[in-house]
Amino acid sequence: MTGEPLIVLRQASVVYHPGQPDAVEALRGIDLEVRRGEFLAVVGANGSGKSTLARLLNGLLVPTRGEVRVAGRSTADPQARWEIRRLVGMVFQNPDNQLVAPTVEEDVAFGPENLGLPRQEIARRVRTALETVGLWERRADPPHRLSGGQKQRVALAGILAMEPQCLVLDEATAMLDPAGRAEVLETVARLHRERAMTVVLITHFLEEAVRAERVVVLERGRIVASGRPRELFDRPDWLERLGLVAPPMGRLAERLRRRGWNLPPGIVTVEDFLAALGLPGPTGHVPRDRAVTP
Ligand code: ADP
Ligand code: MG
Q1: Using CB atoms within 10 A of its CB, is residue 22 exposed (0-12), middle (13-18) or buried (19+)?
Q2: Torsion angle, CA of 282/284/290/294, rounded to 10 degrees?
Q3: C-beta 51 within 6 A of ligand 1
């Protein structure tokens, strides 16, 4: 499923206000590869460097030391800058700051228009992008009439209309209600599943990172762990020391283990828990090797 590296960070460090009394080393010697078609999550407490890392991935920020390459080209190369920004699309926390036009379709057209594409091609991209996020019917609406989740999906459509190779979502669900969060996460997961879109999902809600193929954990500017979500998310004490909260099912499983329940590792979701108890989840599928009697 996953292929060549699309984004490569080598010993990338970022210092804000270097040489000044208020200098902050936000990232320290980050080595990371984002492979084509991969669904990577980046988690960490507030201030751990997640947004700084996000900005490195599309060249909004260039590392103070080390380098970042996207599709083989350094983000420090001024000639590669616009191409890199198009290849790596960013969705930020607040959808209200990302929507600029009076109607949904004009908003989505904004990026392709700036690329100077022919009118027909712009129309095709706007339609495809809005259909992808399920908002084609709302194309003539002003964005302020939409819910938070819908606004964020319009922002996502605006990025998709640029035909990027990678989506970076920096806490893109943090301001949404639970339904809005689910809409955005499901749309992104579907883009990954059905179109092999490369996704970097940045969040401090670990539940949101469960679907990722790989997670890296940031602490004070360093990558302190990397692995599959289920390997990392059922260690509540360790997560707490990093300023993170394990998903509720992981916390429950851990407490029951301490009381002597013989539960397998890697319980993170309700479905994991049901499977561990030998009860069929929504899919009706019970993996045999996971079934356990307390
Ligand atoms: P996160 O997104 O995980 O909360 P950030 O990347 O925003 O982390 O911040 C990492 C560190 O860098 C924090 O200590 C933060 O205060 C600092 N920082 C972030 N942006 C700036 C900036 N523009 N100027 C100075 N310091 C900054
Ligand atoms: Mg942040």
Answers
A1: exposed
A2: 80
A3: yes
| Contacts with 277 (C-beta within 8 Å, 6 or more apart), sequence order | 291, 292, 294
Instruction: Report pLDDT digits (tens) over 180-211.
Output: 999 999 999 999 999 999 999 999 999 999 99
Q: Whose CA is nearest to atom 13 of ligand 1?
A: 47
Q: What is the pLDDT of residues 144-194, one digit of tens each?
A: 999 999 999 999 999 999 999 999 999 999 999 999 999 999 999 999 999
Question: How many other C-beta atoms are found inside a 10 Å radius of the C-beta of residue 118?
Answer: 9
The number of the ligand nearest the C-alpha atom of 174 reads 2
CA dist list (Å): 104 to 90, 100, 119, 156, 161 = 18, 9, 17, 12, 13
Determine contact, residues 226/217, Cβ cutoff 8 Å: yes
| Residue 66: Cβ within 10 Å count | 17
pLDDT band at 294 (very low <50, low <70, confident <90, very high): very low
- Does residue 50 line the site of ligand 1, with CB under 6 A? yes
pLDDT in tens, 14-37: 999 999 999 999 999 999 999 999
Joined together, the tokens standing for residue 134 give 């399920």
Is the CB of 44 within 6 Å of ligand 1?
yes
